[in-house]
Specification:
With about 180 residues, this protein is mainly α. It folds into 2 domains: about 90 residues, Orthogonal Bundle (Arc Repressor Mutant, subunit A); about 70 residues. Helix content is about 65%, strand content about 10%. The protein is built from 8 helices and 3 strands. The chain has a 3-stranded antiparallel beta sheet. It is elongated and about 70 Å long.
Length: about 180
């Protein structure tokens, strides 16, 4: 867990949550369970090991709080964790990443802490990237039409439709955000 490439979506979600507010492992589990992110497990069997790995990597700090009845380990993000999270937020959200891991977009949008014009700019950049991705997919489909089996063509059509849906959504979201007055 020493480099950012080994951090999962769950790890970034936990870092985001603890950046906003320190909380117990139990509260982290409860909050993740309440979120509509199907690709991220809300199982304590996933969350507690992730918390331990983040703590072992120096990205979280913890202390045991509470009496003898039910002491709980409370976590907060470390300075190093803040740096890692800041670098992750600075990374562009590109079409390939969104297609592979839509929960990343959900997490970044949910915890985006800059003004609405910056968020609108991020979404407009993503929309441009999705437009280019759709063009590439359509060109590939045109060139591969007689060479692919039916399953391959169906998979390609699905990818085109997903890309188109995300493109429309990002354009709409960017317009909604830019129309909000601060």
């Amino acid at each position: 867990m020493k480099n950012k490439a080994s951090l999962s979506s769950l790890s970034y979600l936990i870092l985001c949550m603890l950046h906003r507010k320190p909380q117990s492992g139990y509260a982290v589990c409860q909050n993740i369970e309440a979120m509509p992110i199907g690709a991220i497990s809300s199982s304590p069997g996933s969350i507690y090991p992730c918390l331990k790995n983040l703590e072992d990597a120096g990205l979280l700090l913890s202390k045991v709080v509470g009496g003898s009845v039910k002491p709980r380990k409370h976590f907060r993000i470390s300075t190093r964790g803040k740096r890692v999270l800041s670098k992750w937020f600075d990374e562009a959200i590109d079409a390939t990443a969104v297609i592979k891991s839509p929960e990343t977009l959900f997490i970044k949008l949910s915890y985006f802490d800059t003004d609405s014009s910056a968020l609108s700019d991020v979404l407009l950049e993503l929309e441009k990237d999705l437009i280019n991705r759709k063009k590439l997919l359509l060109n590939y489909k045109a060139g591969a039409a007689g060479k692919m089996n039916q399953g391959g063509l169906l998979a390609l059509d699905l990818s085109i439709q997903m890309t188109d849906f995300l493109k429309k959504w990002t354009g709409k979201a960017a317009k909604e955000i830019s129309s909000v007055k601060l």
